[in-house]
Amino acid sequence: MMLRKLALVALLIAVFSLTLVVSVSSVSAQAAACWEQIFEEVTIQFGGQTITYDKHVDTVFDNDCLRIEDGRVNNHDLAAGGAIYCGEGGTVSVWDIGILGEGDLILAVSPRDIAAVPNPPEVNTLLGEAGGFRLYRLTSGELQVNGPGIYSTDPEYVFTWSSCPA
Fold first, then answer.
1. Contact 97, 82 (CB under 8 A)
2. Burial (0-12, 13-18, 19+ Cβ within 10 Å), 78
3. In the structure, what pLDDT confidence band is assigned to residue 82 with cuts at 50, 70 and 90?
4. What is the pTM of this model?
5. C-alpha dihedral sign at 115, 119, 121, 124
6. Residue 21 CB partners (closer than 8 Å, separation 6+)
7. What does the pLDDT read at residue 4?
8. CA–CA separation, 140 and 137 (whole Å)
9. What is the DSSP letter of 66?
10. What's the distance, CA 142 to chain centroid?
11. What is the DSSP-derived secondary structure letter of residue 88?
12. Per-residue model confidence (pLDDT) at position 102
């Protein structure tokens, strides 16, 4: 009977160890894809033995993992049709991004043109438009760019942010 319990405990330890190795391997692989595995330590008593292992409780996406580091405001939008930048003194510029990743300056709105609209305005107000892109000052005081989407399921790209530093 005692030998049977020890064999069962040994089997459980082997299974938990294998699960932990597989979990650690999958965490390493998924970390490269910006997913983080959340584990909590669990301790159980079995056959007079204490077994501690890590139990998977959640998986979360790291939003800061995938972003474009060229200074654009919409740096988390990896499939945006346009790159939005805050330039010197608060100029907003929008670059149309081509299929090969090259960009063409499409729209630039000066700080003077932006300041000419009350913040916040009574209605959403168009500040400038070109090449299918439009820059608005919203009634919330935020800025918003609308432009062509790059997927047929997303006919319009929309990005909203607080403001550009002056």
1. yes
2. exposed
3. very high
4. 0.63
5. positive
6. none
7. 55
8. 8
9. S
10. 20
11. G
12. 84
